[in-house]
Design goal:
Elements lengths: L1 H12 L3 H18 L6 E5 L5 H8 L3 E6 L2 H10 L4 E3 L11 E7 L8 H10 L1 E12 L7 H5 L8 H10 L2 E9 L3 H13 L9 H13 L13 E8 L1
Parallel strand pairs: 1-2, 1-4, 2-3, 4-5
Antiparallel strand pairs: 5-7, 6-7
Helix pairs in contact: 8-9
Length: about 240
C-alpha cells in the first residue's frame, strides 16, 4: 500500500511546476542535440513509474527504462510501451548501447554516484549523450531533501569534476527553474501536500495554468540561485 501511494503521488507530481520545467528543459536539450532525428535509442535511467518514458514516447522516440523499485517498474510497464529493467545504476550489467541516456533527479539518491556515472558511460555508444538533472547548491539543503531521500545536493564544480573523471566530454551546465518556479512551487507545495495522492487542489490548477503561460520567463536566466542544474555531455 505504501508503494502504491508513492506511485499515485508520482502521477500527481506530473502536474507540478518543477516536473513541467524539468520536462521542458530536457525536451529542449534533446531537440538541440538530435534535431529532427527520431531513430535514436534512449534509456531513462531511474524511470520510476514511467512518467518521463511516456513523455519521450509521445515525442516519437523509442525509450527503455530501468529502476531499482519493482513496484515502479510494474507501473512503468502499464504506462509506457518500451522495455523496462529492474536493477540499480551502480551495478546493472548493461548489454545494450544507447544514443542518449536521461538521468533526471536520480544521482542525488545514489551514494556511489561516481560508480553509477561510470556504469552509465558503458551503456552509451561512442560519443553518445547523457542528460542529467540534479538539485543545486549544498547550502540549500532542507528537510525536503531528507524527506525525498537525497544524499546530497551538487554544486557545478563537483558535478563537472566527477563527469570528467568518469570519461565524459563537452560538458554543458545550465541552471534551471529561477525565478518564477520558486514562487509557484511555494503555492503548489502548500496547497497540494494535504491532497496527495487523491486529487489536485483547484487553487493548484489555477496556479499551474498561470505558470504554463509564464514559465518561458525562466529561460532568460541562468542563475546559480536556481533549484536545479541540467547537465548534458558526451561519452569519450
Amino acid at each position: 500500500m505504501k508503494s502504491e501511494t508513492k506511485i499515485s503521488s508520482e502521477r500527481i507530481q506530473l502536474h507540478s511546476p518543477r516536473f513541467q520545467n524539468r520536462k521542458r528543459n530536457i525536451i529542449r536539450t534533446i531537440k538541440k542535440i538530435f534535431e529532427d532525428r527520431k531513430n535514436i535509442r534512449i534509456l531513462d535511467a531511474g524511470c520510476g513509474a514511467g512518467n518521463f518514458m511516456h513523455v519521450v514516447e509521445k515525442m516519437g522516440y523509442e525509450v527503455e527504462g530501468i529502476d531499482v523499485d519493482p513496484n515502479r517498474i510494474e507501473s512503468a510497464k502499464q504506462y509506457a510501451n518500451g522495455p523496462t529493467y529492474l536493477g540499480d545504476l551502480v551495478s546493472f550489467p548493461f548489454t545494450q548501447k544507447y544514443d542518449l541516456i536521461i538521468c533526471g533527479e536520480i544521482l542525488e539518491h545514489i551514494r556511489e554516484d561516481t560508480q553509477a556515472l561510470l556504469n552509465l558511460r558503458k551503456a552509451l555508444k561512442l560519443n553518445g549523450w547523457i542528460i542529467i538533472t540534479v538539485p543545486n547548491n549544498p547550502d540549500a539543503w532542507s528537510i525536503d531533501d531528507e524527506l525525498a531521500g537525497h544524499i546530497r545536493r551538487y554544486n557545478k564544480t563537483e558535478i563537472v569534476d566527477k563527469l570528467i573523471k568518469c570519461g565524459y566530454k563537452n560538458i554543458k551546465v545550465r541552471y534551471i527553474g529561477w525565478p518564477l518556479i520558486n514562487l509557484f512551487m511555494k503555492v503548489y507545495t502548500k496547497t497540494s501536500r494535504k491532497n496527495l495522492p487523491q486529487k489536485i487542489n483547484p487553487i493548484v490548477k489555477i496556479a499551474l495554468c498561470l505558470y504554463s503561460k509564464l514559465e518561458i520567463v525562466d529561460d532568460f536566466f541562468n542563475n546559480p540561485a536556481a533549484e536545479k542544474m541540467l547537465i548534458s555531455c558526451q561519452r569519450i
